[in-house]
Records
---
Amino acid sequence: MTPDLSAISDQISLTPSAYIGIPIALIGAVFLALGAQFQHRGVNKVDRLSEAPSTAGLNIGQLLLLLRRPSWVIGTLMLGLAVVFQLTALYFAPIIVVQPLGAIALIITAIVNSRVSGVKLKQDAIRPIIFCVGGVGLFVTFATIFARSKEITQSQLVTVLIILGVVTIAFALLFAFLRKKFGALIYIVGAGVLYGFVATLAKVVIDRVHTIFINGAQGFEGLTIACVVALLAATVLGGYFVQTAYSSGPPDLVIAGLTVIDPIVAVSIGIIVLQEASTAPWYAILAFVVAGALAVYGVVQLSRRQPEAAARL
């Protein structure tokens, strides 16, 4: 029996312009991977020149030294471009379509590490890459069919801000009292969680700016301003955690953690709080879970096998 293609096409929820967000997000992932490589080299150089190790948190002097490292400055500029591309992608497409594509950054990082360190990628590294690409591809495919961008309600936004406030306070307390016991992984987890909220808040602000300037709505209200403040605070704290993680872990571990935790948090918020997949049937939800598990398995296995690049600027 010939399938009804028109019925299938009717299920696709993304508008033609929304598909533009996918290649834009992929370009952002490239800049993310390269920026992480350069920043990692800069932090390692500063760590070697400093008398005190930065694993317990970078101090003011070390932060100032980073500004004098060309590799760190170049990496920061690349990460800035990655943010610009991600925000642009979020303007066009839902969070659950854009955020998983960041996992491509880990694949690029693995290849760059292999080239720089002179260690050829072997089968035990190629296999996780296939899992990662397959999982992300499956997830995005179903997301493009069933995900729908919706206007975020006031109650949903308040919920996101409250959760972010609780998470930020928790990590601030952990850092204040247990920072000397922190390893790279805890900093990566903290940064990934915070960046997941950053993506959500960025989507909120972008949609509201669009409403104000395109649809002629009234100006920013207090809740939107609170979103901007929370977004900036989470970005700064998450960025600090990332810089500290570079001093105690390789860039592929940092990218692996961020590309797993960030999308999980952002996608969870998009599905549970923002209801971007509220119309998805049960088999689509199952596909999301399976695809996510495949991608997580791939990035975890890949992060365990890739060599750290030895070359430094």
---
Amino acid sequence: MKKVTMQDIADHLNISKNSVSQALRNKSGVSQQTKEAVLQAAELLGYNYSERKVKKSSLKFILFATNFALSQTSFFGELVSSIQNKCMKENIELTIQEIDPILFETLEIPNDLHHYDGVLILSHSNNEWIKKIIDTNIPTVIVDHHDPTLLSDTILTKNTDGAFSAMSLLVENGYKNIGFIGDISFSPSYLERYRGYKRAVEHFELPFEKENIITEIEESQGALFTKLNQIDDMPEAWFCVNSGLAFMLHSFLQSREFNIPEDIGIICFDDTEFTRMAQPKITNVATNLEFMGALSISTLLERIDEPNQPFIHKQIVPTINVNESIRKNKGASARLTT
């Protein structure tokens, strides 16, 4: 006779396996009504909880991401790969699912979500939809996105400090007039990077030329080239919110016969194939994506083990990778270089 599992109880009651586990362990993460229903179902189905334990090898996680995120083979591709590798090491079954945009309009969540023990949500999408996922009480970790209304464990980059450090490096190497490129309405991370940029401008008393502050931009070569062609006097350096924009900027400047870094310097967030393909290579401030992915899984496992602990936001401090896209003053501090 087949042994009854927690998943069998979950399927019988149409709830998550994690809720069954909490109920059987008399944890406060589920209601008394749910606990009673689980105990009744366990008895009805012939499940003996005293003889069974939840094993990591039995866990099933699902990762949700938009088409945009999953199509980015550089940043998000590396992050997903790290998550997959960590799951393999922990013997966790991982399903990766692209979010259908229609779900954002209907605010519907997948019918089979209760089959999973944990949820990962990668990058920004729709906060109301994410709330619906969180409301299922299935342990959830949000990666590279946050919002004050989302009560969930979250893994983030320390974006504001990273941008400030990048600007500090430029200042230490003699740059004063520094432009900004990035659509700050597209992502909370980009807005935070802009705040770090502004904080550095104020801290170092740098000029703030509105013509050189591009905060609304479609992330395409045509849109960026059009914006840049409208600028009369180029700044001494540019800070870009991501490596894709930096690579396009790099191409534009070289097509206009600017020398990098002699005429104009470039620094950006994220270390991807774009920063490495460019010649000269682009200096960047970046998060260790392998660490970030592994930390996401570790945090989800911690939440499953301790479902009633306060929610936490873990911020990873990015590091600077100095390449050839900025000039280097001999007197610049070595502490900002790697």
---
Amino acid sequence: MFFKSKKSLGQNFLIDRNILELIVDTVKITNKEILEIGPGSGNLTSFILKKNPKKVYTIEKDDELALLLQDKFNNEITIINEDVLKVSEEKISNEKLTVFGNLPYNISTEILSKWIVNIDKDFWFESLVLMFQKEVADRIIAESNTSKYGRLSILSNWKLNIKKIVDIKPQSFSPRPKVDSTLLLFTPRENFFELKEAKNLEMITRVFFSQRRKMLKKPFNQIFKDSKSVSKKFNIDLNLRPQNLEPEMYFKLVKEYESLRN
């Protein structure tokens, strides 16, 4: 069955066997329950199945591809023919899932943000092996005091440990994207800052990074009534820039903001 990729769904199918092998070797998956996001034509799915997982679930939005996968794998996989942004992943299985995903570039940060924000104390996954556009991956793993560091770096580091696995060239895909890709491994942080509401972290980082070249004085005054006492409490120099603060300091500031509002 011939299938033409759809640009609107950000479809670039991975065809490089060496990269496909590298992806499934990133974590141990024998006898584990697997969730694959956007399996496309099933190239990675085939490599996953060779590792003898306990069960494989796939989320595929495209109706044609869902039929193709059904035809190709029959009862070897469970296909969820839905939009990943509307799926409650924690309800898929009672076991913790190992997730693989060549994420559609146009919604990759939205998918990751959705997962992070909705995680409670119990993680529904054991690990996430995800591919992003390299420029997005660089922002996810960026450290403070660098130009790529920002809201996405802080949000990603809130509940997850992140490790870069490999950069992947456009020729590993069909059709070839115009940019390089990067494979990242995410695992749950055992202890993370418990905040009342994730939207407070999103709001505060938005205020800080909307003017990333400006000094901290301005966003502090916007967020805190008594900005001087808050900056003094955390020993923060208000002449610094938003990129100079570590992720942990942002979590502390959100916690302070929440406690002051009570």
